Each structure stands twice: as structure tokens, then as C-alpha cells.
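Progress against Task 2.4 (sequence-to-structure conversion) is shown through the following example record, which the project officer requested during the mid-term review.
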Amino acid sequence: ARRAGSYKSEPLVYGLLAALLAPWPLMFFTDLSTPRIFSLQALVTAFAMAVATLLGPHAAPRRFRGWRARTQAAREFASRGMADTRGRTGVLLYVAIAEHYAEVLGDVTIAAKVSEQEWKSVIDTLVPAIQRGEAAGALVRAVDEIGAILARHVPPDAENRDELPNRVVVV
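C-alpha cells generated for the chain above:
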């Protein structure tokens, strides 16, 4: 995903904070009239909202961006039917470019057999490579690494039926 959310609420939040905070120092430390303070309050609020709009995802705290990306990854996992395989072996590599976030989600069987540390090693190489502008090669390497991890922990059975599409989906 280019970004995990629309980040439409951040400008409103920063605007409300600015509207609440702006008048207090003006009331206590200046002799400005109430209409003048109100005008400055409106100006500060508009400025805060404009800056937050321009910053987009970067206006949100890092922790919130990570939470939003994790939530969206879980939604994508569910909506793409990753939990509907016979052996509960669905795997999703989710990347949110704007948040500098990536995650490998595995269904119940995969989660029981593959440690978070193994997925973390894939992500720790993927995210910096994407930040350097090497997204295509980094994604190919990540998919190869994920395939090798899966082959070690959940080798294909004799039938080896592919129940999910193997393709890149950009949302």
C-alpha cells in the first residue's frame, strides 16, 4: 500500500488543539481585544490544519502510524481470504510505503511454526532497501526469503495445491 490510511483526522486534531491553546497566552500576556484574539486564533488554527494536511502521514505520531499500518495489514489478510486455506497456511507480506512499515502475517499454522524473529529478519532488510529506492529488488528478495522460511517450516505436501493467488496487489 502506498499508505495505510487516509490520515484525514490529523489536520482536524491539530486544528482543534491549536484552537484550544492559541488564545490563552494572548489573553494573559497581551492587551489584545477579544475580536483580535479570536482572529488570531482562527489564523493559527487554519495554519495548523494546513501544515498537518501537507505533512499527511508524517503529521501522525510514529506509534500511531505503526498501529494504523498493523491494523490495515490485518484487514488485508482477512479480506484476501488468507485464513481460508485448508491447512491454515496463508501468508501475506504487507508493505505501507508512507509509513516505512512492513509486516509478514502468517495464519495459525504458520504462526505456530515460524518465529517472529525470522519474519523480523526479512523485514529488517526490506524496509531500509525500500527507503533507498530499491523496492522492486527488495520485494523479490523478501518473497524469496519468505519462501525459503516456509519451505523449512511447512514443506509442501504431495498434492502441493496452491490455494491463494501469488501476485502483488497494490492498494
